[in-house]
Structures are given as structure tokens and as C-alpha cells.
Write the C-alpha cells for this entry.
Amino acid sequence: MSFCPVHPRPLKTKASFFWLYLLKRRSWLDGLFERSYRMKMGEVHLPGLDLYMVNEPKLWKQVLVDEAADFPKHELLGAALGPLLGESIFTTNGQQWRSQRDMMEKSFEATRIKLVFRLMSEASDAMRARLDALPDGADYDVEMEMTQVTADIIFRTILSLPLEGDDARRIFKAFSRFQELAPRLIMPVIFRWPKLFHPWLAAKRSKAAAQEIRGVLEQFIRPRYDAALAARTGVATAAATAPEAAKPAPPDDILASLLDAVDPATGKHFSFDELVDQVAMLFLAGHETSASALAWSLYLMANAPEVQERMHAETVATFGDRPLDYADIRGMELIRNVFRETLRLYPPVGFFARSTPAPRRMRDKELPADSTIVIAPWLIQRHRDYWDRPDDFDPDRYTTDAARESLKCAYLPFSAGPRVCIGASFALQEASLILATLARRYRFVPLPGHTPKPVGRLTIRSENGIRLAVHKRA
């Protein structure tokens, strides 16, 4: 059994330049038209910008995998994310990116992902306590809850600290402002407006929100950075001699591995600013993208009650009334397929932008230098040529040969190639843990009159939240 979940209806024909600007200021999903979901490669020419949309599998693999070095990351997202992420692996290119990636790989090896399972479980327990405190059948914004639990998980796994109280509220409010302002900062880059007409007030507010988030992160990173520096150099700072810094760093969190990371070419460790950049990137990618996908998972579960009951039965059969263990994750195939289908329908990062430093030919098109290439998982994973019933939610599709072929050519929620998401395994483990915990203990039901409204900003979120009734199971 399948159903067609909510999604923005595409325009019948391509919008004019004026309407395209107005639509994309709210959500880039609003500017898509019907042919976008069928074409192999499309093009849009704007003042000062040649943009090419690539959907064909051999073309997006050429850009992301086979010739990735020839297609560096575009400045589009850097314009919006720079104040928060600085020069992290999300925004850099070339040798700088390669060095950073090499230094961070160890933090996300399979052995370390297994080690942080305990910290993930502690955050999941805190989530369960919050939900247990609700009245039965309560009207609840599960999008906000998924934001809180994923932010808590990333805080615990990076810093071995829970995210709660004033720090949690400050970060949530600041990031909400930062996310809302992002499209306004990206649009001038796309449309190449003169500097005079850039939204300076939005840029100022975005920078202030980013500084507030970074400030919270810095207060936890600084003592451990100074303690690690003192241990390496024998020179103690005032912060390194403080009681909290004198405690040994936990051996199984991600910050410990980043503090130990060494550039193999130079022998240098991350500087403090570089470390904050990378942690900010991990915080953004590690909580925002997962929160988006998990919230949409709960919306889909609530609207597919037969699937939800099967998920519950799978969790009962796998771990029953005992705590969920790391070894249980592999045994829950339906849980994994529900999340896989969610990532197909609502990929958290809906598009990847690359540039062409030199002219080149793709299909029958001559691309000038400095062209923009957009690869959109949102389009590719709903493409009419590559997926059966592309807009339907059907987690059972992955048991068929047709879907397994589609996965090979038209599924890239974590990107692909050298720049594939460094935390993909982390995210999949986290999602399985949370969905299994929720499916085992609660039943989610749609609320009459509430329909989520998907919007594409930094991630694909619901403009009006995702509200569901939460019932505790006997």
C-alpha cells in the first residue's frame, strides 16, 4: 500500500525572470516546473549567470564522481553559510578541502560510530522522557522535537555534553533566524545583483545569528583546545589550568579525535578557529539535515498507519522491552527502508551546486567558463524516467529489482564521489535508533486541518511545522 504525500505542485511552464526571482526568494522549490522532473539536462540564463540543471545519471556522476576535481563547489552556499561555517569542508575546495577531509576521516570511521552509540542512546532517552510527559493524544510539533533530539545527539557525540536549557534555546532561535535569511543572501549571488542592491540588513542579521551559535560552541571547545595545546607544547594557558580543562578528555567523542587530527602533509593540528569551523559544520550538517529527514519520516508514518504498525511489530520482535542495542540496528529492515524512502522524497539538501572553471561540452550544450551546474536530488529522486510512482511513499519498493536499479542511478541524498557526506553512516545509525525508539513506544496520527508545507531553503523543511497527535502505546 502506498500514498502520495504532500509536495509543491510544479508550474505548468517555466516562470519568467521576474517571477523566478520572487518565487525563489521564498523557496527554490517554487520555481520548478513540470518538465524539470522529466528532462535530462536543462538550462536557465540569467543576467550574469548561466545555470545548467543536470538530471541524467551519467552526467551527474561525471560532475560529482568521475571528474569531481574539474567541478569545484560553487560560491552559492558559501555566500549564505560562510558566516557560520567559515572555511570548513562544506565550503572549501582544492587542497585545502582535501587536507581537511583527510584530517576528519578518522572521526567518522565505523569503529568510532559504534563507540558513540551510547551517547546517541542517552539523547534518545531524553527525547522519550519529554514525549512521555505529554498528555496522551497531545498535539505536538514533531519537527521541533526532532530538531532538539538531533541537536542533543550531535552535542553529546562531539562534546560529551547534553544540549539543554538556555544554550539549547539560544541555538534553536539563532539557527531559525539564520535558516530563514539564507535564501535572501543566495538570491543576489544567483542573479548577480550589484553590491549596492545586496540585502545588507539581512546579511548583518545572518552574521549576528551565526556569531551567537559559534559563541555557544566556542565556550565548550576552548577549554579542551587549550588543554590539548598545553599537552602538546608544555605551555599552559589560563583556560588550560581551569578545573574543567584539567579533566581528561572523554576518549570516545568526536572532538577528541579532531583535537588529535594531524595534517599528513604539514604535521599541523587544527587551529582553534579551524576547529570551530569544522565543529560548526558538523553541528549544522549533523542536526539540521537529520532533523528534517526524521520529521518527514514521522509525517509519512502517521499517514501510512499500516506501515507504522509493521514498524512497531518489527521493533517488538527485534528488541521487545529491553533497551535498544547497537547490534539491533542491522535487524530492522523496514525501519531502514522507511528512512531510505523519506530521504528519496524529502532529501534534506535538495540541490548541490558546482562551477565550471573552464568551458566544456555536456550533451549537446556548450557551457562557458564560470557556468553553474546544479544537481538536485529533489528532482533526480522524483524523476519520471528513473522511478516507478515517483511521488508515492512506498518503503516496500526497495524489495524489488526495479527499485534496486533506481538506487544505483537516481539516489544521492548524501551526494556522491569524493565529497559524499562524511557523516552518512552517523546519520543512518542515528535515524534507525530514533525511529525504532519512537515506533516501539508511540503511535503518531495526523491532525485534522494541518498539512505541512514543504519549502526549500538551506534544507527542505515544513514552513508551518509538522504537527501530529502523539499516543503512547500500552
